[in-house]
């Protein structure tokens, strides 16, 4: 899974993907659920040909990319211009032709499989 560190990289990856589905895994080191989801997503990634789905990972804390993230439990607020509107972790967003086509929250591998089947 390729890590993306800047908005420029993010935009470039979406453009390069063209008509392929792009799955973006938003993570944070302090969120144990995102670590679990990332491990499972890595397993799922190998079920799909790389020509079908592009898998990206974005760490919302260690990143130049500007995300809207409010996590009250950790008293964490970033007042940055949102472009992905990530309000909850874990979040996986799906893009095609540079536009968001689906989004799932929490730890739902059933939803993940359903979205991948629907949009591939």
UniProtKB/TrEMBL annotation:
Domain Thioredoxin: 4-114
One Pfam match: Thioredoxin
CDD domains per UniProt: TRX_family
Protein name per the record: THIO-like protein
Organism name: Mya arenaria (Soft-shell clam)
Classification lineage: Eukaryota, Metazoa, Spiralia, Lophotrochozoa, Mollusca
